[in-house]
Structure prediction request, 357 residues.
Amino acid sequence: MHEYAGNLHSHTPYSDGALYHADLAQAGLRAGLDFLLVTDHNIWVDGVQGYHTAPAGKKLLLLTGEEMHNMQRQPQSSHLLVYGVPHELAAHTSDPQMLLDAVNAAGGLAFVAHPFDPAAPHFGEAAYAWEDWHVHGFHGLEIWNYMSEYKSLMTSTTAAARYAFFPAHGISGPPPAALHKWDELLAAGQTVTAIGNADAHGNTYNLGALRRCVFPYEHLYRAVNTHLLLPEPLRGEWRADELAIYAALRAGSCFVGYDAPAATRGFRFSATVGATTTNMGAQVRLPTGAALQLHAHTPALCNLRLLHNGTTVASAVQADALDYTVSVPGVYRIEASIKFHGRMRAWIFSNPIYVRE
Prediction:
């Protein structure tokens, strides 16, 4: 499998971001990313897609999607990340189900953005959480949104300033409610792909006498990212490679990595029966008369745990591998944590392997 790291949630001045697409691409290249998806609010920006090259020759593929919501709704909750639709869908935002139906009819992908986004009342910030769980047709959840987590730390002017200058002291993982909802949807029989993103805006704020960019695009692109595993390498032709990236997202062949504590490239989670190995997102039949073995490998020592239908069934401390023999069907996924700035932080979230009877 060929691994590509990227970020699927950024903004430009076409909505509420600070820098335009070419500058985002250069920030992504400096951060070591392979692709970016720019998702301005309720506007699909065409004509900017393609490869960008760093002075040293590394390439990054920049694509565009949208972050969509009903702008007449107060507060403006229920944001949806839309990828792979080559035309504007803003006319469908008045109803989340209508929007999802339009995305699916166009062959696109839809992910619930920051589903449990908190309010920051000290700064007059409303919560922009997902409020429409009755709908159907979305492909996954943004379980970890860096800027939404920073918002949860803004409990006072002092706290906001502290974490604006030292964000790594506060960033620790997705909201537990997001992981619980993910497991709940999986237990109900849905296939739900998890992604993690920056929600990068690059805007500068005044905090009393202090003035600070919260946060630079490059900083965010070195933090919470989505890593894709593709069966073939990207070809360097943006239209073909766009399809390959969306195919991996659709299949759930990806994981969420917090790349600030340590690089997460090289993580793998697979299922093996005999000579056949499948990866994250796969549907695997529980065999009779043969062993189904799960294997996780991390690129650094960490604390690992394997969850089955949301419950931990195996774990390892300060290890870089975990093996488990499956005896019952269900949904299996891996969580890894690592020590960073004096405490354990969430590090890696695999997507599930679905073991069916």
Summary: The chain has a mean pLDDT of 97.
